[in-house]
Specification:
The chain is mainly alpha-helical and 182 residues long. It is built from eight helices and no strands.
């Protein structure tokens, strides 16, 4: 693995087989992305770092459950991160406390240029895929995955049943996956 880029699906397979070094490589490639999402939801960088540690423990324990037919490795890990962040907010009984401005300096000063380029490419790809969705569906996906809103809160905001919100998210994510794959 020295010096060679390894994709996340391969790393997850290696983690499922008990390869501890693969966890470090996965953390190096995905840790800052997950921290950014969690910090945006929670609003506190230090607490977000704790949650990301929990996320990687979950990845270690559940890597064998990852199914590439259902989601990309990044989507699977982001879902775990989002859910852990929401769980943390619920446990403390509050909404995010930090200001968005306080979360801006999340860039890893040690990140490699190729990792940053990959992150930028991923971000552009996600934004393009979101832009191709029905605007309401895209807004719900952004609120759920980037802002950490629960399905119940989205249901209240949009004035539709929770089941409808879940359907919008499921269909939107499927459409995004199809657009990215083609």
């Amino acid at each position: 693995m020295a010096g060679e880029p390894v994709d996340a699906a391969t790393l997850l397979a290696r983690i499922a087989g008990g390869d501890r070094a693969a966890v470090k490589h996965l953390y190096d490639s995905m840790g800052m992305k997950l921290l950014g999402v969690v910090a945006r939801i929670i609003g506190d960088r230090q607490e977000a770092e704790d949650v990301v540690q929990e996320v990687f423990i979950t990845i270690w324990r559940k890597a064998a459950e990852y199914d590439p037919a259902r989601a990309s490795p990044a989507a699977w890990m982001l879902t775990i991160a989002r859910n852990r962040a929401i769980d943390r907010i619920r446990a403390r009984g509050s909404r995010p406390s930090g200001s968005p401005e306080a979360l801006e300096p999340l860039a890893d000063p040690h990140a490699r240029a190729d990792s940053l380029a990959d992150a930028n490419d991923t971000e552009r790809t996600v934004h393009r895929a979101l832009a191709g969705l029905d605007p309401r569906h895209a807004a719900v996906i952004r609120a759920a995955y980037l802002d950490g809103m629960s399905y119940d809160a989205l249901s209240a905001r949009e004035g539709v049943p929770v089941g409808t919100i879940k359907t919008w998210v499921f269909r939107g994510l499927r459409q995004m996956r199809e657009r990215v794959a083609s």
